[in-house]
Amino acid sequence: MINRQYKEMLGAKSVIRELSEYATARGKEIGYENVFDFSLGNPSVEVPGEFTDEMIRLLNEEDTMTLHGYTPSLGNPLYKEEIAKSLNERFGMNYKAEHIFPTTGAAGAIAHAVRAVTEPGDEVIVFAPFFPEYRPYITGAGLKLTVVPADTDSFQINFDAFLECLNEKVMAVLINTPNNPSGIAYSTDTLNRLSSILKEKSAEYGHTIFLISDEPYREIVFKGADSPYVSGFYDNTLSCYSFSKSLSLPGERIGYVAVNPACEGADLIVPMCGQISRGTGHNCPPSIIQQAVAKVCSLTADLSVYETNMNIIYDTLTELGFSVIKPGGTFYIMPKALEESSIEFCKKAKEYDLIFVPADGFGAPGYFRMAYCIDTEKVERAMERLRKFVSEVYGR
Are residues 40 and 53 in the same domain? Predict the structure, then answer.
């Protein structure tokens, strides 16, 4: 008999992917330049030349067995060493190579992290708005997912609701900052308060509550934003990272778990991740990609276009009377729809070839997400289309 759980999941496909596929099909009809697709968070800037140069050098100069052979089960030592060095230099940490576990992007990192610090039946808390794929990551590990309602005034943490959700079964809290879908970065004050609560409740319950920090947008932070490094606030933190956004390498699926050296079981968690890999069939990211990224892990692509696009969109949205909180980073913005149902709002926008994602699946009904990782020229044309849509449909 085929697996019932995964069969049922076929009926709950990603709304984001479905809208992206629609935009692609619509583009074949009218030209993709005429479809204003804000659905998928696919980086739109070029990979740094240094990465390409290193890939070419590796292919031309390195021994093929070194390039394409199996890596150690806990990852390429050079990759691990360079990640630790980069984090220490930039954030004042004291990681060593043994605290770094290479993964297939941030998704693979989260899948390992949640399994390392929980057992089936435990509870994991997330804060709305949140990335919808957290559900299968967490429930697929046999865990209960509890969602804290959003603080829609700021999209920082709703601490009153968080305190109501905390209980002895909570073993981990999963955060995402800068945040997909809101674009908000958790502030120093927010992280200080979160850390204080986790310390207090860990002592009260007699067990550690781990903090899992999902950070693929860590390098996309805008001018004036307060977006500190999460692991500097709470010892029992596992940082989950991906180079998909910072280096524009989403298709290479390369990331890591970084275990805070002061974390409970810091000497055990990375080896445990290796054992988790045995049970999930993950193993390591490709050997050559680990080697290439090791040489450029402190660099980024030219990310400035995202802030340019954000400002254009934010200014237009506020001009048109949308309720919207200005992002501190990422390449997402999440305005409130101009009617109660964001699903209906987005359906109407599609008639104008504006492809927006209802935020209901992110835990923020009534809002919609725009992924503005597209050319600035197209953003500007999209704003003209948005003005037309809002004027004709909503009389603004």
Answer: no
Average pLDDT over all residues of the chain: 96
Backbone phi, psi, residue 63, to 5°: -60, 135
Q: With 0-12 CB in 10 A as exposed, 13-18 as middle and 19+ as buried, what is 389?
A: buried
Joined together, the tokens standing for residue 19 give: 């809208």
For residue range 209-220, list pLDDT tens digits in order.
999 999 999 999
How far from chain centre, in Å, is Cα 26?
A: 27
Residue pair 71/287 in contact (Cβ under 8 Å)? The answer is yes
- Residue whose structure tokens are 């958790």: 186
Q: Do residues 172 and 231 share a domain?
A: yes
Q: Is 92 left (phi over 0), alpha (psi -120 to 50) or beta?
A: left
Domain residue limits at 213: 49-294
C-alpha span between 238 and 67 (Å, rounded): 29
pLDDT computed for residue 13 by the predictor: 65
Query: Given this model, what pLDDT does residue 230 score?
Result: 98
Question: Does residue 12 register a pLDDT over 70?
Answer: no
- pTM value is 0.96
Q: H helices of 48-133, where?
A: 49-61, 64-68, 77-91, 105-116
Q: Quote the radius of gyration of the chain (alpha carbons, Å).
A: 21
Q: Quick count: other Cβ atoms within 10 Å of Cβ 152?
A: 17
Instruction: Mark which of 247, 273, 294 sits at the end of a domain.
Output: 294
Domain boundary among 242, 262, 294: 294
Q: How many domains does the chain have?
A: 2
List the one residue out of 312, 214, 256 whose CA is nearest residue 80: 256
The answer to whether residues 82 and 202 belong to one domain is: yes
User: For residue 394, which amino acid is it?
Assistant: Y
Answer whether 264's CB lies under 8 Å from 22's CB: no
Bridge partner residues of 100 (DSSP): 258
177 and 148 in a single domain? The answer is yes
What pLDDT shows up at residue 240? 98
CATH number at residue 141: 3.40.640.10
- What is the percentage of the chain residues whose pLDDT exceeds 90? 91
Dump pLDDT digits (tens) for 112-141.
999 999 999 999 999 999 999 999 999 999
* C-alpha–C-alpha distance, residues 234 and 36, integer Å: 41
Looking at residue 220, its pLDDT comes to 98
CA atoms within 13 A on the CB side of 1: 3
At 341, list the tokens: 């149902």
The percent of residues in the chain predicted with pLDDT above 70, rounded, is 99
